[in-house]
Amino acid sequence: MTPAQHKPDRPIAALLVPDILALLEEAPGDLAAETEEMHPADLANVVEAMPPGRVGEFLRALPPNRAAQVIEYLDDELRAEFLEHVTTEQAAEIISEMTPDDRADVLETLEEKTADDILSDLPDQARQETERLLQFEPDTAGGLMTTELVSVEQSVTVEEALAQVRAAARSGLRESMHAIYVVDTDGKLVGVMSLRELVAAPEGASVADIMHTEIVSVPTSADRKEVAKVTSEYDLVAIPVVDGFGRIVGIVTVDDVIDAIVEEQTEDVQRLGAVQPLDDPYFVSSFWDVARRRVGWLVILFVGEMFTGTAMRAYEDTLAKALVLTLFIPLIISSGGNSGSQSSSLITRALAVGDVEVKDVLRVLMRELGHGLVLGACLGAIGFVRALMWHSGPSVSAVVALSLVLVVLVGTVVGAMMPLLLKRLGFDPALASSPFVASAVDVSGLVIYFTVARQLLGLG
Amino acid sequence: MTPAQHKPDRPIAALLVPDILALLEEAPGDLAAETEEMHPADLANVVEAMPPGRVGEFLRALPPNRAAQVIEYLDDELRAEFLEHVTTEQAAEIISEMTPDDRADVLETLEEKTADDILSDLPDQARQETERLLQFEPDTAGGLMTTELVSVEQSVTVEEALAQVRAAARSGLRESMHAIYVVDTDGKLVGVMSLRELVAAPEGASVADIMHTEIVSVPTSADRKEVAKVTSEYDLVAIPVVDGFGRIVGIVTVDDVIDAIVEEQTEDVQRLGAVQPLDDPYFVSSFWDVARRRVGWLVILFVGEMFTGTAMRAYEDTLAKALVLTLFIPLIISSGGNSGSQSSSLITRALAVGDVEVKDVLRVLMRELGHGLVLGACLGAIGFVRALMWHSGPSVSAVVALSLVLVVLVGTVVGAMMPLLLKRLGFDPALASSPFVASAVDVSGLVIYFTVARQLLGLG
Known about the structure:
By secondary structure, chain A is mainly alpha-helical. Chain A has helices at residues 10-26, 31-35, 40-49, 55-60, 64-73, 76-85, 88-95, 100-109, 112-121, 124-134, 141-144, 158-170, 195-200, 207-210, 224-233, 254-272, 287-314, 316-321, 329-353, 361-389, 393-424, 434-457; strands spanning 150-153, 180-183, 189-193, 218-219, 238-242, 248-253.
């Protein structure tokens, strides 16, 4: 096998499957050596492209530490299936090769009984570390962190620190050594330095001389959004996690931060589409689970939208007198909805990345009022011409044009204010999803349209 | 000043402004020492909370290397303003303290004339590095990468390599040393190892013995989505960038990858809301620029939505005979739009994270047909009861119910297929934004509704 110079996509990984299955058949003993040069993420892609029945055989043919690496990169579903079908001893052997945070993550995806059995089969130290990590909520700094880190006391010299680091590195620490943390005699985090800085330090210096004391850390309870924000704001590759006494208890590494950012974004996009966020990837989620998560919002939106019927009943006689008005109903209410969803996505995202805060409400309002007027005027002008072309006559065309200006204005302002209001009330601004704003705006659009029609056409 | 134990939010940074301004007034010479313990990202927050007129004075009171760090964390707008108002020499002095990738990024935000002046005032080596980086598109691996990296030849021993690394670290390399890259005599990338592995290696070993040859790299032309995907898939903290000959020319560090992921996501959310992505944060973008980016899509959607009027004109006589049908128009078309936007956000996101691929089209279709039927049946049942309660009579109620089932089914399928189709045609699937799907679905919703009505009510 040649080294994976670029990431083989899943289709390419699938091409390797026949070779690997043949090898497994003919010379399983050579498998480890033949695949040694492949990145574990690539091997995981190969495993995912394999017939499910051969996965166990393949993984058992690899040495446990190698199998552990591959398993860390597997889909949750496939991983759980494999671990639930080998003996508890085999599972424990593989899991004990993982870093403590991955170990806890994997156990969380298994059935509780299986996870408990495997846990009790782990070596004592690994079991204790893992149990401690399992106590934290998965979406907090405590749940994301690993306990594998290198810390030295502030009183030691650069040479002593380097010797400790070398010893830790040789003892099989598996996480990259992103930073060396400096603690006082109580274990309190007082400084940090990179391995590079330690290596480059003049001989004879003390650790306290070269460490940085401007430490950025998060408490174990910080939620993953906060961890991601701090990591991104300070350009960190690992962020220390401290307990209530300021003692360092773990680090969250940037690969887990990226995973957290991607998951958080998936949830935001699903909320924007009015779907209660899924826990699993699209095909992995069960049909009925997805249906359940969709039907809730859809029914709420449907019930909200029923008020459009109520509004129209109130104007039934206006409609009867000028049936031509019906032709423009979908056009007018959708324009309000579209401009509303533009504003709500702009503001929801600006809140998420910190460009806008709740206290900016007035500035946002002024800006969106301006945009609403400009956009409403554009659509109103086009609508006026279109209505004339449909021979609707100048008065009906004027009703359409004026309604469009007002509806777009209302849509823009409601769409922009909704996420700010939700955030102010302590809800997730992404709940101001486009269709949600659209429903609210549809009703007001109808009321505006018929009110304008009654006034300008002298009906009602 | 106490060390920043946790990230001071902007409101907290604002509290420090009076103290810092007073210090600037009374003892500007002490400013550097007094703020020495603060993280540059925190100082940047303080600068952003300062009256704009004092920013220049404050930054000039800091030593150039410190000012450079703070400036790297500033908002683009504020940074450009500051750099355009100091002398070219001062700007060049500050910019030459930055890492090459940040230097190129900063110059790209300035007016071309200013950027050129500063560039020609940089020391020779810095100018050449920066000019080379400026040649790459900002959103590619070449545009994101820094040229500061440590590479050693594969023939050297561990001791020689460590000595080279120490020398590089002491010579003022500013990026963290994420990995040591191993090259052959032509500069071709052949291996990689972490600083930890080099430090932990047995004495006398050769670099070739301990390096990993399973190298993951990207070409300079790789776009930022690809860089982010590879970094996330392989859990990297830095990814090497190679030229057409496989020679390493730079690295993209994970902090820049996170920024790229966040920006890409912002664009996706804006596209989902039918806004052409903004280049700058919400308040930084000019009013007319935002209006321009909104009006385009809004007009396209408006013109698309005009077909609802065309459709309704075709059914004008049906409407005249059963005016009660108008009451349900907004309800029916919005249900199609809402279920469509659920499907399009689910599938767009699943495509973005790689859970679904274009070749899965049949599996997606089957699943969404199922969801459409289930969701349509729920809304149809509720709609039937509601129509009866409005005394619409059993036949009109049946028309409403059957139309809802069909409209939701069509919305769900169109919403799910649109992103797959767009991707297949080489467009961005996020263009299948919710309101875009909604417009397409509105027209078909009306046609379905009136066709069902004509058949069941015997009209037309």
